[in-house]
Amino acid sequence: MSSLQLLGQPQNEPRRIRILVAKPGLDGHDRGALVLSRAFRDSGMEVIYSGLLPTPEQVAQMAVDEDVDVVALSLLNGAHMTAFPRVLQFLKEKGGGDIVVVGGGIIPDSDKPKLEKMGIRGNFGPGTSLKTIVDFIKKSVEENRQRISRKEGGSVTRKPRSKNSVKKAKRPKNRSR
Q: Which residues sit opposite 74 in a β-bridge?
């Protein structure tokens, strides 16, 4: 079975990209994230939206629980240099180190190379076309799937999902309370 297929899915049908769109931390401006979610859905991806105000740890847990290919992070509040790396750290701790992480929002040009070096890719700003973002994600996921397939001997599979293309993830309970 190819690494691009679901268990129980016909051999010639590629697996849809599963993406978690998240706004970690204290950023309640979700219009852009919702526009991106619709663009991802319209391009054939299965979209999971985190809702507002999840912690970086909650985002990572949702990504692992939902078995996503990519986490798309968006922040407009300037906390990208804190929140984005924390999501990446928690992904690695929770077994999601192979998940592609893409950033976006209000990110100064001087911060973009730092985020890229950490492994947070894209780092798109306002005015970036939806096509550019969608194409970047599709290419990144394809490259990542090929890398994982080579590493694991061509046996990357995932459980089939329902036909719903957009769903809201259940936020894990905050264990610190």
A: 104
**Which CATH number goes with the domain that contains 58?**
3.40.50.280
pLDDT digits (tens, 9 = 90+) for 51-92: 989 999 999 999 999 999 999 999 988 899 999 999 999 999
DSSP 8-state assignment for residue 28: -
3-class SS at 46?
strand
DSSP-assigned letters across all residues of 137-163: HHHHHHHHHHHHHHHTTS---B----S
Query: CA triplet 44, 45, 47: central angle to 5 degrees?
Result: 135
Q: Which tokens is 152 given? A: 């694991």
- Residue 172 belongs to some domain of the structure: no
Number of structural domains (the chain) is 1
Structural domain that includes position 161:
18-167
Q: What is the pLDDT of residue 151?
A: 83
Amino acid type, 94: K
- Assess if residue 175 is contained within a domain: no
Indicate yes or no: pTM above 0.85: no
